[in-house]
Design goal:
mainly alpha, about 50% helix, mitochondrion inner membrane, electron transport, membrane, transmembrane, NDUFC1
């Protein structure tokens, strides 16, 4: 039987691989590493979060201060905005009571 086109049939000569042969070899390698298909044993995965035990003896004081100062600043802005809104309400309430025909 003759060798398929693109291949040399001699035992010692190099075989030229077709693209589908290369893909099949890559899939076999990936299956060996459990990278192909769904599964519970993925080898090369990384997480953006690092799991470690909490160290309660050395708290992150910078993070604590940042959290509390941010909270305090937001509350201060809330009270300031509320006071401005109340003053605007009072001003519009007084303006609506004024029934002068010459002003409007």
């Amino acid at each position: 039987m003759a060798a398929p086109p693109g291949r040399q049939g001699a035992a010692g000569s190099a075989l030229t691989a077709r693209p589908c042969d290369k893909m099949a070899a890559a899939l076999r390698a990936a299956a060996g590493l459990r990278l192909a298909g769904p599964g519970h044993g993925l080898v090369f995965t990384r997480s953006a979060f690092v799991a470690r035990k909490n160290n309660y003896e050395h708290p992150n004081w910078f993070g604590v201060g940042l959290a509390f100062s941010t909270s305090a600043a937001l509350w201060a802005l809330l009270f300031k905005q509320h006071n401005e809104d109340v003053m605007e309400y009072e001003r519009r309430k007084e303006a609506s009571k004024h029934k002068c025909t010459g002003c409007s």
